[in-house]
Each structure stands twice: as C-alpha cells, then as structure tokens.
Amino acid sequence: MDEAFNASYGVSKGYISAAGQYHFYMEAQTAVASMTDGDCIDVVCGTQDPTGYQGYVAGVLGVPQNKVVVKCPRVGGAFGGKITHGIPCAAAAGLAASKLNRSVKIFNSRTADMLISGGREAFSFDYEVGYTADGIVTGLR
Description:
Helix content is 28%, strand content 33%. The chain is α+β, with helices and mostly antiparallel strands. It starts with a helix and ends with a strand.
C-alpha cells in the first residue's frame, strides 16, 4: 500500500460522516390474513414484492407456496421500505390466522414500525486516496 501511495501523482485525505437513515413510508406495516378454501391462506398487505412475501409466509407456515396468495391492492410512497420490512408482519398474521382459523389483522404503530424495520446506522471514517494525473485511483485506505 505504501508503494502505491508513494508512486501516486497525488494523495487526498479526508473525513466522511453521515447520520442514520430510515425508510419513512406513508403508512406503517399492516397485514390481514384469512384462511380460504380450507387449507389456503390469503394475505393482504402493502408490499413491493408480493412473490417474496408469498415465499416467506409459506416457509413460516410450512406449506407449499401455491397455498398462499398475497394480495397488494396498492402501494406507493414507500421509498423501498415495503420491499422486505413488512415480512414479519405478514408472516405473523398468516401464522395467527392459520392457528386460530380466523381472519387476523396486524398493524404496527409508527414507533414500533420504526424500531422493527431498522435502517442504515450512522457511520464515519477517515480516508486517504492516491491517484494518477489522469484521476485513476492507485490506492485507497
């Protein structure tokens, strides 16, 4: 690494920091699950990945995916927060509905939702980068 920096045209040093970040979608995670056709389950939830949710709910229930139908009437303004963060809610609703054999609705308060879904933690670091006269990176520390 020292050789790369010694041979560099220039070296720049600096410090980067960023605060934490959460997806703050418009509505908290919610799911409604109901048993249908005897051994099938319908899950209605706001998701950007219905097929993924189908697989996770089926896995939690230990049933084939064709026994789970995930319906998403609409989703918008989620900024990526509805891709996977609602899986625990949907899976819990599905499990409760299958055990109780009745419809179950699970919804999170905004506070609980933010605690469950997580986000990017704050970070900071020092850096040093060596480069050629053409701007090609020769070393990074």
